[in-house]
Structure formats: C-alpha cells, structure tokens
Amino acid sequence: MASTMIVDIVSAEAQIYQGTAKMLFAPAVMGEVGIMPQHTPLLTKIKPGEVRVITEDDQEEYFYVSGGMLEVLPSGVTVLADTAQRAHDLSEAAAEEAKERAEKALADHKDDVDYAAAEVQLAEAVAQVEAIRKIKKRLGKG
User: Fold this and answer.
1) Which fold has domain 5-87?
2) Considering the chain, what is the average pLDDT of its residues?
3) Cα–Cα distance measured from residue 17 to residue 54, given in angstroms and rounded to the nearest whole number
C-alpha cells in the first residue's frame, strides 16, 4: 500500500503547489474531507476555505481556495480552485478590507449594486478571514 500521493493545487492563473503528501484536508461542500493515499476516487465541489497538505516529511502546507473542485484519482489528488493562494501570501488586513467593502455595498441599497455579486464577495472575504485566523492559530501566531 502506497504511503504517499501526488497533490496538485491549481487555480485559473497558475499551478500553486505540486508535491508528494501523506494527507490532504479540504473544505468540501458536504463538510471537510480528509484524503489519504489509495482513497476511493471522488469528485466533489469545494467551498471557500483552507486546504491543508501534510507532506511526506510531515510538514504542513496551508492554502486558501475560493472554491472549485476536488478530484481524487488513483494517480493522485487535484484541487482545481477558482483562485488559490499559499497561506504566507495572504493578508488579513486586505481580507478584512474586502469584507468591509462587500458589507458596505450590501448596506448602501443603491440601484447600481449587484447584490448577488456583493454577497459572493462577502462570503469569500469572510471565508478568507476565517482561514487566515485558523492558519495563524495552528502556526501559533494568533
């Protein structure tokens, strides 16, 4: 039985991560899933949140994804994210600012506001802030 698997995390812009891992955790729409080598094939939507990869040398890598798909095949795991960033590239201040902009757009009640888009932006900003705080806590920085 294989003790590692290949993990790819890609966004529309670029490949964010590729490596060998012992486990991957992702925010599937039905709840957080944990994927280990030899997992049953799976295709599921993922929601905005944290993806955590435990590498073959027991290091943890953290990523934020704004949604997308998770595909598990015998050859490995692929996270196809709408957008994805490494944890160290995230800015809590920028995420808080995006959250405030979305909340303001929803509260303004102007005719030119796209409420559906503002609600999506708010949900993504809240998820990003929560992921940043969770990652900081795990790393002992928050």
Assistant:
1) ATP Synthase; domain 1 (2.60.15)
2) 85
3) 12
Range 90-138: architecture per CATH = Up-down Bundle (1.20)
Instruction: Give the pair of three-digit tokens for residue 137.
Output: 């806590």
The pLDDT of residue 79 is 97
Continuous segment of H or E residues that includes residue 51 = strand 49-55
Q: How far apart are CA 94 and CA 87, in angstroms?
A: 13
Matching residue, tokens 């009640």: 109
Phi, psi of 90 (to 5 degrees): -85, 145
Helical packing angle, 92-108 and 115-138, nearest 10°:
150
Tens of pLDDT, residue by residue over 22-51, are 999 999 999 999 999 999 999 999 998 899
